[in-house]
Amino acid sequence: MGQLSRRSMLASTAAAAGGAALLSASPAAARPRSGPVAAPLGPGGHDPVTVRWLDGAAPQEVAGGTTWGVPWPRGAFSPEQGFALTTESGEAVPMQSWPIGWWPDGSVKWSAHAVSSQAPKSDSYRLAAGGETAPRSPLSVHRGRDRITVSTGVIDVEFGRAGDRVVTSIRRGRTVIAKDGRLVASRQDRPGADGAPVIKSEAFTGFVSGVTVEQDGPVRAVVKIDGKHRKGRRAWLPFVVRFYLYAGSDAIRVVHTFVFDGDEKKDFVNGLGVRFTVPLRGELHDRHIRLAGDGTGVLAEAVRGITGLRRDPGEAVRKAQYEGKKTPDTSTWDTRVTSRLQYIPAFGDYSLSQLNAHGFEINKRTGVGRSWIRVDGGRRARGLGYVGSPSGGLAFGMRNFWQLHPTELEISGAAGDEARATVWMWSPRANPMDLRFYHDGMGQDTFPEQLEGLEVTYEDYEPGFGSPYGVARTTELMFWALEATPTAERFSALAEANAAPPLLVSGPEHNHSTGVFGSWAPVDRSNPAKKELEDKLDFMHRYHLEQVDQRSWYGFWDYGDIMHSYDEDRHVWRYDVGGYAWDNSELSTDLWLWYHYLRTGDAKAFRFAEAMTRHTGEVDMYHIGKYQGLGTRHGVMHWGDSAKQVRISNAGYKRFHYFLTADERVGDLLHDLVDSDRSFLVLDPGRKVNGGNGEFDPDPKALLVGKTTDWGSLAMAWLTEWERGGKAIARTKLINGARSIAALPNGWAQGGKVTYNLADGTFTGPTEKLVSIGSLSSVFGLIEVMTELNDLIDDAEVKAQWVRFCRLYNATRDEQREASGSSWGNQNLRQAYSRATAYAAKHLGDERLAKRAWKELRTGHAGYPEDHPFTAERIEGPAVLNPVDEADLGTNASAQFGLAVMQCLALVGDEI
Questions:
Q1: Type and span of the H or E element at 169
Q2: Cα–Cα distance list, 20 to 466, 633, 731, 833, 899 (Å)
Q3: Distance between CA atoms of 836 and 810, rounded to whole angstroms?
């Protein structure tokens, strides 16, 4: 399966680094701030662009609204350019637009656009330069001393500037639909599974420390709230929660992020949620409960049911209650029912718990201290509930509800004046989070012992490094303040919008034509050779996607990642074998998945890559603490390996999602990585392989930052910050780094002691030609970032030196000696580097190199040769626990093969 050599991987460990205090910047302003505009923009312009719904036809419901990004070619539009959106029939659509990325000349590279769920429905829209259409009732934001109020024209949402109520009220006209929105969490001091006789538990509430209005209409508003969960003197579990509201909509989208900052040996989180109080009006038989199940299923009940009784209140009464309408006046009922209403139990508490990916349970009870009654169950709930009456109520839900188990939707107190609706991102009915390291170290107390352990399990263990302190998780929630109990059909449509929020996108042809994201091109099956490769790409992507479900790679901390390597003997992925378990972005899996989406425009591909970005950007990297800004190498636990590296926290893996969706949380992550080079002041990346004695005294002017794997990851953060108009130092370090590396005698292959200056991003090294290069040098985004950088800056020396590197990696030893003074050794991953050869061929106009690139790809060194079988075999029980498809594919090889094929097709496709 194209496994990498142990030596190659060990060498890559030297790229590890530790964290420091990082940048916390506000979103980019309306025009770039880093670097001058090269020249006044010409007339520019661009033809109208078609945008369509990601999943196909226009959806029944939109989750409040939708926000998406569109790229533009260099020089097309100035930052002041307005945009107009129309339906297929020419009807104007109210829209809000703003730039989120710029070309070096100051023209718009990426624009973001937002429309409300009230926009005219159409399967596709026409986006063109022009004046925006304002909504009939523009959204407004009022900033008061103690609170901020957002009015959509349908609902008013009031946010507290301090205290424990994140949302003080949600009103629809004069009716309070919900109030006292709180963040809740709880912990226990022992895991519970170890047989502890006494377990202490305590509850915490989120307290607001800051509120920021990031956008204030006219179509879209974004309110960001920061704080921590508190009880008494303890404040922990910091959170960032964003609320999204759209003009004319009664929906609120919430993006909730929390960071674990506890002691994993003492703090076992056993509940994490968002809770609202819902005032209830009307009789108990006019209070409705709705819970979405699997497929289009809906559970429709009332707090006090009047169907199925021994005495019949009347068909009109029963029908009204079932449909969620106000029942006829009780004077019209059969008196044998109305005289005995007090004897019909009122079930005020409901729970839908999804404790695993394969089954949910619904239970209800009449109140605290009473037994729960099982209602029903199913496989995978869509994660939406409702409590209210014909005069209004709250729908509340969570995206990826079953994928991110253990989750729960809970309604309590609905038989009283006020109900509580809670979305549990971690259900209190589940076992608590147990984030402790999974083994005791097995005597690996010294570096030699740890290196021996690496030899057998591939796990880079070191005591104390497997800490979850600083990892995070982001969850998307939805709330609708409804004017009445929805019909079953509408509630099911809301559940679908909650589970898979509709998104507008521009197509592969337009995106490619703008020149964004480097070397790629839309799917091309124009001849048999290309078709064969396209079929392989499709099979490979589909196989890994389907493995997620077949292997049940779900769960709060796991969903979004996939496994690294396969165990043919057990017919399982090596989930329990050291460094072969979770992939954690190893060899740029994220890049492969995003480029696959760009080429195909496929909805499944988008959501696969999106889930990975949400995971790898939060769980696989540190957001606070000593490792801040670093990611963790692949392993049995996402944070378990001792190699903490910028190659895993790589901004290049996240920027696709940001520019395609304008997602503010991902934007935060990208900003936070700008200063991640400071992590090299904290942790010695080569502590296990350079023969050191454990002492570490770094010099900020001469840090041991790798010029390939390390610098490529840092460079992508700087490139993205420059694109977004952020800190000027990002552009400075990016260009200084590229130019100073190119000035070394052998550029990116230069050997000897090469050091990095933290202040300005420059490298210094020997003046004689020396060679030192590893096979992992360019497979963590270096090829991709240099492809983009060379198109952005006009520097002949940088480009020439990079083309030289690309030409020589897979060259003969004689060619390497002639150009660099010595052979580059027995390099691994030659198939992966076929795209480097293709890049050199393209820019040198060298047909011989182009043919060499295709030969390297087909030979398949450390990957998939031309005759590799892209087929799967079905394995049934009793050989396996569950039926699975098994193919001779490994994640690292798939990622690099995918990137190599896609870039070779884009660069030298005519020579195939």
A1: strand 167-172
A2: 18, 18, 21, 33, 32
A3: 9
For the stretch 195-227, pLDDT in tens is 888 999 999 999 999 999 999 999 999 999 999
The backbone region for 478, taken as left when phi is positive above 0, alpha when psi lies in -120 to 50, beta otherwise, is beta
Residue 290 and residue 385 in contact, taking contact as beta carbons nearer than 8 Å: yes
Across-strand partners of 114? 67, 96
> Phi/psi at 752 (nearest 5 deg)?
80, -175
User: Where in the chain are the domains?
Assistant: 6-23+558-689+703-911, 49-129, 140-274+433-479+486-499, 284-426
Rounded to whole angstroms, how far apart are CA atoms 76 and 73?
6
92-110 core/surface letters (b: 16 or more CB in 10 A; e: else): bbbbbbbbbbbbbbbbbbb
Give dist(CA 105, CA 161) in Å, integer: 40
**What does the DSSP assignment read for 484-496?**
SPPPHHHHHHHHH
Rounded to whole angstroms, how far apart are CA atoms 198 and 216?
50
Amino acid at 357: A
Q: Residues 483-512: pLDDT tens digits?
A: 999 999 999 999 999 999 999 999 999 999
pTM of the model: 0.95
**How far is the C-alpha of 762 from the C-alpha of 758, rounded, in Å?**
8
Opening angle at CA 382, ends 378 and 388, nearest 5: 100
Q: Which two tokens stand for residue 483?
A: 């004017």
The phi and psi torsions of 251 (rounded to 5 degrees) equal -105, 155
Say which CATH topology domain 6-23+558-689+703-911 has: Glycosyltransferase (1.50.10)
How far apart are alpha carbons 56 and 102 in whole angstroms? 30
| Pairing label, strands 201-216, 755-756 | unpaired
Burial of 143 (0-12, 13-18, 19+ CB in 10 A): exposed
CB-CB contact of 246 with 219 (8 Å): yes
- CA contacts within 13 A on the Cβ side of 410: 24
Q: Is the Cβ–Cβ distance between 556 and 432 less than 8 Å?
A: no
Q: What pairing do the DSSP bridges indicate for beta strands 83-87 and 92-93?
A: antiparallel
Q: Strand, helix or coil at 843? A: helix
Listed residue (83, 102, 79, 101) closest to 92, CA to CA? 83
Give the pLDDT score at 195.
81
Q: Which amino acid is at 335?
A: T
User: What is d(CA 749, CA 802) in angstroms, rounded to the nearest whole number?
Assistant: 10
The pairing of strands 251-259 and 268-279 is unpaired
Burial 241-270 (b: 16+ CB within 10 A, else e): bbbbbbbbbbbbbbbbbbbbbbebeebbbb
Residue in 258, 180, 253 with CA at minimum distance from that of residue 220 = 253
Q: What is the pLDDT of residues 144-179, one digit of tens each?
A: 999 999 999 999 999 999 999 999 999 999 999 999
Q: Which two tokens stand for residue 240?
A: 């960032």
Which residues lie closer than 8 Å to 369 by C-beta, 6 or more apart?
A: none
Contact at 8 Å (CB) between 533 and 905? yes
Angle between helices 528-550 and 589-600 (to 10 degrees): 120
Query: 228 - beta bridge partners?
Result: 207
Report how far apart, in Å, the C-alpha atoms of 133 and of each of 45, 94, 114, 216 are.
Answer: 20, 5, 12, 16
Structure confidence by residue, pLDDT tens digits, 90-111: 999 999 999 999 999 999 999 9
CA distance 341 to 327: 14
94, amino acid identity: P
Q: What are the backbone dihedrals phi and psi of residue 318, each rounded to the nearest 5 degrees, phi first?
A: -60, -45
- How far apart (Å, rounded) are the C-alpha atoms in residues 477 and 475? 7
Structure tokens of 612? 């990975």
The answer for 369, left when phi > 0, alpha when psi is -120 to 50, beta otherwise, is left
Note the residue count of the chain. 912
